[in-house]
């Protein structure tokens, strides 16, 4: 009996322990078999990590591959403020000293993150590698350095208004950078890898890897050396005449490609200061000016085209003052008597031009100016382009017919002027202006090329040839712009001196001086516009302010383009080399066309 | 029968419980194997843990054989001495012990560290078994019961002072099992339960902060995953990610990556490593092995020739069971994390010797069982 009770008790112990073990096993079954997937995926999540691999934003290059906007490897600095709690002010002062971030601002951001329970705060994006190394040397805990790229513009102020810039997040916010942001923008890759508790990657090979795709490289139609010539000459002009602003656009009339495009004052997209903001927008396509006399060429070309006049038709220029509908119209500078159409262009007579337009009539004048593209954007492919202001025919008043042909009462953008003169340089055919030559996907090598596109015909070739004859005289003796002449070449061009409208009347102190033309006149290599807004000293006429710059730019550009002088006798000195200049028997010159 | 000089040794070996010995060897081997694997995977000074564990196992085997060969009845007369020695060591450790993990539990000794509380466990169990088995002892008398109570309370209080409440807690189940076996009255058991329930809040009040933290973590595992619940959570993930068949030997990740802290992987959380690498199959096998071990101990209690043997066997069985249950429970969140090692498998010398000694005693009980009468 005693023995049996004893056995029962041992059995009790046995049963109790066995039951306990069974419970354990049941628990293991639940964890390892039933909940395996859930727990395994949870565990995996703790030891797999993702890292973003930044791609490079597409480069912006000139047509020959000179770099205009590139990327520089750098690091984004991120901080975990909770790791600094021991010495927050000390850490902040190190960060602000090394990264040049405001101390107070940083402290405030960290405090806010700490109270909001936010774990990581960006300290500064795009920090130079040397700076990062210096910061690393402090061995601060809670700092993370993420690979990234920073946009740089190696040429600084050059072409800045066209290129635009990106914001701190690498998104284009102005210019080409904004316009083509979706193409330039890279898509970041991702690496998924296993890591240990401290975040160190485990193996060499990632679990999954998605390559970063770099953005497409964008080739502009700009030629960097020419752009450089244009910018340096504009700088010299700014120095000499102290104008409010100066612009220049050069285009290839055969293709519509913009070869150079500059505006002053400019800015450095690498370091944008608040005072730069007024100069950030590309005024060449956004701002309309009253063009002044440069419009005469278009009006007269129209008259020639319609057969209303010939170059030799004579008009009475009324000795410089002519009343039409009770309002005076004056020729500036000289008093002219009878002038041929040729001379009206050469000497830029307002009265003559107005009389030609009168003979043509408003309908035909309206038609021809529309055909030259005024009153609508050129379609250069940059958004926000202004159409200018060119009233529809129904809204013309009586004076319009005498004012529009001399570039008053009409607003045109510099680009529209270039487009119109490019048509004159291209036998009357307007080519679509464009600034992007091609896009290249660096990942696939695929190219997307923008082909020259004819928009339409402004005037017939015969009229073009006639007007070019007249325009060639402008830079000769007796013309308005001898200073625009280029040694060895014939220049076809026109000056413009527009009075600015101040408080509703034309000002006698504020002018827009311009010169636009193409060289060589017979086979133009480029159309060039130089436009100077409010020159403050040294004159205000297009022939004195803009023409010299035109001449210098044209000369240097022709030399760069290796275009042989078409008329050696115009060089003045007949050097043996000039005499020996090779001309092919069939008349083609050894020239390099863009 | 031939009588040679090795005759007594052969007699002992022949009469030993082969199953118990075999299971012990299997568990020791498993321990060394996974300590080796974990050490190789984590590297550093963990690399050679398995060699030290092997050495401890060899020493333990010596203790095991020595205990098995000696007569537990004769050892019983020395139980007071063992107990006294253990109590002295517990006092010494309180005075000059080394403080690790906020507890003063380790005694530096010839380049090794000794944990007196581990020695006190079998000593207390053995003395209790001895006292309970004295013919003059009547359990259900106030004074005598108080006497046993005192025997237990002295080491428990001393261990609590280190403070190591987890280890102190382990003293209680074996004593309760032995008292139960000795035939305590039911109402006393009820009274004791009531006492524990009443004492619990008081105990909680006097606990130190990190002890409270552990208990809270156990009760609300998901609350403090980042801090105090980290180990429990990571161990749970390790076990769960093992799945049915495991990731394979040395293929575990949670401890390698340091999510399960490398320091505890070969010691208190070795079972987590095993469960991750061998899966449910391995967990069943290992728990099964412990069940067999306990069964062997209980069989020792059944075949024992006297009360001392029976009480000793049951006490040791319960002692081992408590360790196994709490340790494995710890790895899956079924028990609070109180730093109890897994017998024969966890890395650690003192506890290895304790376990082997205890199993040797059980073996001794089995060896010295009464001879079945030959017909």
Characteristics of this structure?
heterodimer, A: 594 residues, alpha+beta, Penicillin-binding protein 2a (Domain 2), Beta-lactamase, 5-stranded antiparallel beta sheet, 19 helices, B: 375 residues, mainly alpha, 3-stranded antiparallel beta sheet, 15 helices
Describe what is shown at a glance.
The complex is a heterodimer of chains A (594) and B (375). With 594 residues, chain A is α+β, with helices and mostly antiparallel strands.
Regarding CATH, which class of the largest domain in chain A? Alpha Beta
Number of domains of chain A: 2
Task: Name the CATH superfamily classification of the largest domain in chain A.
Answer: DD-peptidase/beta-lactamase superfamily
Shape of chain B: globular
- How large is the share of residues in beta strands of chain A? 15-25%
Q: Could you name the ranges of chain A where pLDDT drops below 50 across 5 or more consecutive residues?
A: 572-594
The geometry of chain A reads as elongated
Low-confidence stretches of chain B: none
SSE order of chain B, one letter for each helix or strand: HHHHHEEEHHHHHHHHHH
Helix proportion range of chain B: 55-70%
| Content-based structural category of chain A | alpha+beta
Question: In oligomeric terms, what are we looking at?
Answer: heterodimer
